[in-house]
Specification:
single chain, alpha+beta, 16% helix, 13-stranded mixed β-sheet, disordered C terminus
């Protein structure tokens, strides 16, 4: 069981009632997963149920609210958000209940299919329109992109926003009552929050995928007034200076008719970025740090050609009998030569 003797490592508020002490003797594991985009943050509580309480008197209802706090690196409890019970799993033997909950942004309103055409507008205006329909506030950095026309084809708002984000190089998620929509390029410009090397990690896995990344992306749109085809191009940016594409192929994409120059260029840039994004990626496990979340950047040092600046795609925090562990999934933004003295000085400044 999870135990603590000094400061508490966690706190659970269930339907506005603090149940931390009541569940501590039975709690096997807590997991909190923070995603960069495309899906809701989630928590999982795994509990022994030797007395059958969770099968009867304590059996939760879907949609019940749960608030979870975990200790940060100073030992102080940090609220991770409010979640709603989405799934109840039972295992036997032994008798174990697993409660899964999603960030409260997923509600019935988000699941309604919508059919709508947006014309002569901007990406930011579309995002604000959808957010208003869902009674959500908007935060993040949205690039100024003029959009001639885009159609929501009987899609749920969440699905539509996810498609829109990918098309124009953004990421999207809902946290509590806030719709977070941000420019992927701006994310990579954030300062690193930590430096991880061989002395500060438990387990590391990196991969450098040799795949057929196209040398260029072309996006074409037909202007019905001028009767001309306009083409915008972008090249996947290599992670390492001097790296060459593995193929001379060109990825050709057709945009809607009458797309603006900026719209077509944004689409080309987004597809080029997607092609190069996952080439160098990895997973790092370290001692629990609830301060590490998706969307942050970190520096990885002392790992040769895998050293560099990375974006955190996903952060999973697990508290169990094995201790408090954090696992992050990362993708390289920029290779940093370990022989670069200037870079080495900067990374030393960030070291805990």
């Amino acid at each position: 069981m999870i135990q603590y003797t000094d400061k508490p490592k966690f706190a659970v508020i269930y339907e506005q009632k603090d149940i931390t002490n009541a569940i501590t003797p039975y709690l096997l594991e807590i997991t909190y997963t923070d995603y960069l985009s495309d899906q809701s943050d989630e928590i999982t509580l795994t509990l022994e149920d030797v007395n059958g309480d969770w099968l009867y008197d304590w059996y939760p209802d879907n949609g019940d609210g749960v608030e979870l706090s975990l200790a940060d690196d100073t030992g102080e409890l940090m609220l991770l958000g409010r979640f709603e019970i989405s799934e109840i799993e039972y295992r036997y033997p032994p008798s174990v209940v697993v409660l899964k909950a999603l960030s409260t942004g997923i509600s019935k309103a988000n699941r309604t299919n919508q059919a709508k055409v947006y014309k002569d507008t901007t990406l930011a205006d579309i995002v604000r329109t959808v957010a208003k329909r869902l009674n959500l506030s908007v935060t993040g950095q949205i690039r100024d992109i003029k959009i001639t026309t885009v159609t929501q084809y009987q899609e749920r708002d969440v699905e539509f926003l996810t498609r829109l984000a990918k098309t124009y190089g953004h990421s999207f998620k809902i946290v509590d009552k806030t719709l977070v929509f941000y420019d992927n390029e701006k994310l990579g410009e954030n300062e690193a929050v930590a430096v991880l090397d061989k002395t500060s990690v438990i387990d590391v896995r990196f991969r450098d995928v040799i795949k057929d990344t196209p040398s260029e992306v072309q996006v074409s749109t037909y202007n019905t007034q001028s009767k001309q085809t306009i083409t915008k191009t972008a090249k996947p940016k290599p992670k390492r200076k001097g790296a060459k594409p593995t193929t001379t192929d060109t990825l050709k994409i057709t945009a809607p008719n009458n797309a603006t120059d900026g719209e077509a260029q944004a689409m080309a840039n987004a597809h080029a970025q997607n092609q190069a994004d996952e080439q160098i990626a990895g997973e790092i496990e370290l001692i629990g740090n609830a301060m590490l979340v998706a969307g942050q950047t970190i520096l990885v040092a002392d790992f040769g050609k895998f050293s560099g600046k990375y974006l955190v795609k996903q952060a999973r925090h697990t508290l169990s009998n094995q201790g408090f562990l954090t696992t992050i999934e990362i993708k390289m933004l920029e290779y940093i030569d370990p022989k670069d003295n200037k870079t080495q000085e900067n990374t030393n400044e960030l070291r805990p």
